Amino acid sequence: MLLHSRSARAAVKVALVVVLALLLGVPLLAVALAAFAGSWNGVWPSDPTLAHLADALSADNLASISVSLQTALVSSIGAVAVGAWAALAARSARGRAARVIDAVFHLPAAVPSVVVGLGLLTAFSRPPLTLNGTAAIVVIAQTTLVIAFAYNTVAGAAEGLDPVLEQVAGSLGASPVRVLFTVRLPLLLPSIGAALGLAFALCMGELGATIMVYPASWRTLPVSIFALADRGSLFLAAADTLVLIAVTVAVLGLIARLRGRTMVR
Q1: So where are the chain's domains?
Q2: Does residue 138 contact residue 180 with C-beta atoms inside 8 Å?
Q3: CA distance 5 to 71
Q4: For the chain, how are helix, strand and coil distributed in percent, rounded to 5?
Q5: Cys-Cys with 154: which of 84, 184, 227, 251 at CB 3.0–4.6 Å?
Q6: Which class would CATH give 51-264?
Q7: pLDDT digits (tens, 9 = 90+) for 167-186
Q8: How many CA atoms lie within 13 A of 227 on its CB side?
């Protein structure tokens, strides 16, 4: 519905700000306050302290941060590589084959993460391929969960490519491989960067499948946060959450900067 009245548009904007504040601002504010709270017995916390943040940056938690970063980077790169390839394949295939590819790569988004975790745990807990208790099964779980988002992002951009550019390159004697690397992929770099950022952010916060398959030696930060909250250490869990947000935003900023350079080119 179009809003022609200035007062109506202003009311909609105010309502949107209020909803965003309630859904995003209040929870983030509560986490930030809890991270520096010595106690919280009233409406507002009291006895501010940096002890929780210092614990969040301890050697054990830094190891979890490192694990989260490594897992998210490998998983997101793998998901984007496979998802981009599938998106280009679906665009070239057309017809029933394209619909099958589209359905297969959207399936992980329709399945609960705990189902993915249980399926991987069952499939890879015995020969011929035993991955249970290794970091590889965590990477596979997170890759599986985010591949649909990577595929969908690149597929949408691939549908918008002008086929004339590829036809002109082909008419000038360029092979299909050269067309792929000199025409298609350069045009898709911004969307590939966006898919990488989205996949990385999702992997950094993934818990449902990860908590089912992770070995003790490969514990991500969300798993540590869940364990702390489960034990009632909410202030320390909040401090770990702030660290997780800061690290994720920093890497996303770097990805956005690199994506901006591809768009300029």
Answers
A1: 1-35, 51-264
A2: no
A3: 50
A4: 80, 0, 20
A5: 84
A6: mainly alpha
A7: 777 777 778 788 878 888 88
A8: 12
